[in-house]
């Protein structure tokens, strides 16, 4: 394999490691998985998020208490991403869409961008500095969850903000019987 192709493959692997790191942050916050969340940050990382400025562990504690007090569910959706790698440092911009199902039966939605300086230390890409640009927010009307009253709909598990969430199940299996709805009856 030629040197240019090897360099491109190395860059692709770095980009994937960086994207995986950002995903660990989001999943860790949504599932209240502290260890997963913290794995996205270097221990000395600085994060500026809303009124919070500090390190990752206190950010997790503050964010988890905020989300737990106000919301039944949160989704940190990661969207467009640019990654500029320069040696052991990368500058990353990740657009996000945040949605929270609030305890008062409203839904809050916000959009913005995570701006990260990431560093590869001991072979691992993690966030060294993060700032958060919030660009808009609003409330979305609440509607019933689709199919919530369908018999057996929860046989494969229900959304949870801990490791009982079905996404942690290994191996993932289906506990629901085969059923193909028809337009006339189901």
TrEMBL record:
<feature type="region of interest" description="Disordered">
    <location>
        <begin position="158"/>
        <end position="186"/>
    </location>
</feature>
<dbReference type="InterPro" id="IPR037401">
    <property type="entry name" value="SnoaL-like"/>
</dbReference>
<feature type="domain" description="SnoaL-like">
    <location>
        <begin position="11"/>
        <end position="131"/>
    </location>
</feature>
<protein>
    <recommendedName>
        <fullName>SnoaL-like domain-containing protein</fullName>
    </recommendedName>
</protein>
<dbReference type="Pfam" id="PF13577">
    <property type="entry name" value="SnoaL_4"/>
</dbReference>
<dbReference type="InterPro" id="IPR032710">
    <property type="entry name" value="NTF2-like_dom_sf"/>
</dbReference>
